[in-house]
Amino acid sequence: MIEQQAESREGNALANKTGPCHGGQVERKHGSQSTCLSQPPEESRRANRQAMQQESPDKKSAATRIHDETVDYRFHSDPLTQPLAEVSFLRRSLLLAELAYVAYLEEDSAATVVDDVGLRETLFLEEDGSQAYVFRTEHDTIVACRGTEPNEWNDIRADLNALMAVSETVGRVHRGFKKEVDDLWPRLEQELAENNKPLWFTGHSLGGAMATICATRCRLSMIDSNPQELHTFGSPRVGNKTYVNHVKLQHMRWVNNNDLVTRVPPSWMGYRHTGTQLYFDSNGDFRKLTKIQRGRDRWRGFFKGLKKRQFDHFSDHSMKLYVEGIWKCVQQQRDADVESAIG
After folding, report:
1. What's the pLDDT tens digit per position in 49-68?
2. DSSP readout, 219-250?
């Protein structure tokens, strides 16, 4: 199963809300379905933060629980005051990584924390367990797909269903990942149909696979805005060579050392990766290595994990480590190194 890792995904606090909209949210109807669109005024946003600070420790933990950790999340990213395309590559990557991380939060908590970086509109989409956020600024629209939750049978079933199915374009694609996107796509396509802002996709684990398929469909659909960039973190292989090469996307595929998920489904089943690989070594540093050098580095990471009594093939999959790796690059001002690796 794709998400068997040391830091288990989501506690019960991430159970889906089914009640009415609250906290200044606006209810949007889609036939028999409704969605809470968070557009709270400044007073409501301030009240939400104060309420969270005044809650008991147990309630605060429930509102901000990611990877079975209590998180009082604060963005490393600076507030957006300009189009995302005008932000440096590393700063842009950092924000998209943090949004892939925040995608595991409940919608009310996510809407509160992303407001701090200038994302004024938060829309949570869910269909049959397939979940994604649509974040909007004055200049951009960002889609963040949520990854695997081990207590969600729909996610587990998607991970296990490694058989290939005929894609909607050409080639063949992972049947489980395709099913997740098939459930969510009508709603997402409806939301993006009139989007006239630059469009960005991000996701971790299963969310990375979903973001890849969504960005591909968006590129080929009647949606006016094409994806500017796709950033995936710890993403599995999505389809065969024909599928992944059919549509050319600016795909940044971040890989953390021994992250096992990035090596499944196996290539002997016909699966291939796409995009530009950006690799963090066993020390959590970005490095441009050859295949042989990466192999040696992965052995170093494996033995370092054993010394810590960890099986780093699982622990390296943590989205928190991806955020920390990019943040380290930002602090070290390694923009030139990373951009040279992209070519």
Report:
1. 444 444 433 333 334 444 44
2. HHSS-SSPEEEEEEESPPP-B-HHHHHHS---
For the record, the structure tokens of 243 come out as 């599928």
In a domain, 57, yes or no: no
- What is the model's pLDDT at position 149? 57
Q: Which residues contact 340 (CB under 8 A, 6 or more apart)?
A: 288
How many domains is the chain partitioned into structurally? Answer: 1
Burial of 79 (0-12, 13-18, 19+ CB in 10 A): exposed
Compute the residue count for the chain: 343
Residue 58 maps to a domain: no
Query: Phi/psi at 317 (nearest 5 deg)?
Result: -80, -10
Domain residues for the domain of 160 are 65-103+113-342
What does residue 130 show for φ and ψ, rounded to 5 degrees? Answer: -85, 130
For residue 103, what pLDDT is reported?
95
CB burial string 118-151: b at 16+ within 10 A, e below: bbbbbbbbbbebbbbbbbbbeebbbbbbbbbbbe
Identify the CATH number of the domain in which residue 284 sits.
3.40.50.1820
pLDDT band at 307 (very low <50, low <70, confident <90, very high): confident
Which residues are 227's β-sheet partners?
199
pLDDT digits (tens, 9 = 90+) for 250-269: 999 999 999 999 998 888 98
